[in-house]
Write a structure and sequence with these properties.
This protein has 142 residues and is of the alpha+beta class. The chain has five helices and four strands. The longest helix is centred in the middle third of the chain and has 18 residues. The chain starts with 15 loop residues before the first helix and ends with a helix.
Amino acid sequence: MFQAPQPATLPTLKKRAEFLAVAKGGRCARRAFVLQAAERDGPARIGYTVTKKVGNAVERNRIRRRLRAAVRATRRKARADVDYVLIGRRAALSQDFEALVRDLAHCLATTPTAPSDEPRRRHDRRGKDRRDQPFSAAKNRG
């Protein structure tokens, strides 16, 4: 019997609401990207985003293309019933492709689908941890 070939990459997220739903899940941060994951029914899907802070349109598209190629190389590691959002960082341009694929494969297999209980660390512009400071001191950095 004839079987349809496996798609070259994962189906993509298209709507803003889908991206926002995944943002409420777990995350795995690496030098070249942040991977967000959230459970849902159905096959694994992925969304790509690169903000304007990263660079101009040419650089953002190059980052997106590298990330898409890395997903094609690691699509078998993606868990079913999970949506992913891959947020590109500038380091995705300079990082060795094998290292990028290795990082992505690890994150696809291990990223939690629920947010962690501990608060995310916040840093001020000088790189210091502000978690232990009272809110007013963190707000009025001077």
